[in-house]
Amino acid sequence: MMRAFFFFLFFCLLAGLVSAQDNLTGRVYEYKTKNILPGVTIRNLRTNGAVVSDRTGAFSIVAKVGDLVVFNSFAYHPDTLYVKDLKYTEIQLILKSNMLNEVKVTGQETKLGNLKPKPLLSPFGGQTLVYATDDKGTADGKGTNYTGGVRLNVFDSNAAAKKREHAAQTEKDEAIKARIAEIFSPEGLKNYVPFKGQEMQNFITMYTPALEIYTAPDFNLTVYINESYREFMKIPAEERQSAGLTSLTGKGN
């Protein structure tokens, strides 16, 4: 009896050891930036088993030498790994090219190609001396009554500079908002999230970032889309596809 028990225990330990050795483990990063990538789907083509990388980019999937393991994420080119051994593996995924064409915001300017702010006139249309008038219409209805003398328009250089700065900032902000709208549109997101129709519209309404979020120094568009996708997928499918979803969440207008 004791002998049978030890044999059974040895068999269990051996099975556990074999099972542990049949796991491919590692972590997924973004190529060059080395940002960790959560939410990446890892699939073994032999077993068709699949796992998803956790919030630290780590993964563990059943595999053996000779298997093909595919790493897939909506914002990245898929990568296929031929398993030569079961050592800890680091995978680097390459961002899809059209996701790289982002507006680059710096403390001084926004890189928008040849876009330049329009020149502004002075607050008085460029005139420093004008004839004084009483602001009433003349008899012929063609102008105002001149009262004689001239009026000097004092040019405030600081005020003009502030107006120019404000106008340039407004134009910059509008260009960035247009870029955000271009990315967070059905056409812009179709290669990165698998939604269509009302479900896609709900995703866009709920997760289009505000200007302040998009231009924050630590904002990463790819990570933002990945995290938004994972959060959206927590909502039941029937609700995700409902026209009333955004009104229920308070994010629709």
Fold topology:
Blueprint: H1 2-21, E1 23-30, E2 41-44, E3 50-52, E4 58-62, E5 68-72, E6 79-82, E7 89-93, E8 104-105, E9 110-111, E10 129-137, E11 144-152, H2 157-183, H3 186-189, H4 197-207, H5 211-214, H6 221-232, H7 237-240, H8 245-249
Parallel strand pairs: 1-7
Antiparallel strand pairs: 1-4, 2-3, 2-5, 5-6, 8-9, 10-11
Nutshell version of this structure?
With 253 residues, the protein is of the alpha+beta class.
Mean pLDDT value: 77
**Major beta sheet, strand line-up:** 3-2-5-6
Tell me the radius of gyration: 31 Å
CATH architecture of the domain at 13-95: Sandwich
- Tell me the span between the first and last alpha carbons: 74 Å
At the third CATH level, what is the topology name of the domain at 13-95? Answer: Immunoglobulin-like
- Count of beta strands: 11
Reading off the top of the CATH hierarchy, the class of the domain at 13-95 is best stated as Mainly Beta
Output the helix-strand order. Answer: HEEEEEEEEEEEHHHHHHH
User: CATH superfamily of the domain at 13-95, called what?
Assistant: Carboxypeptidase-like, regulatory domain
Q: Main beta sheet, described?
A: 4 strands, antiparallel
- State the helical fraction: 25-40%
What's the multimeric state? Answer: single chain
Count of helical regions: 8
Catalogue the unreliable spans: 102-129
Question: How would you classify the helix and strand content by structural class?
Answer: alpha+beta
Q: Rough shape?
A: elongated
User: What is the percentage of strand-forming residues?
Assistant: 15-25%
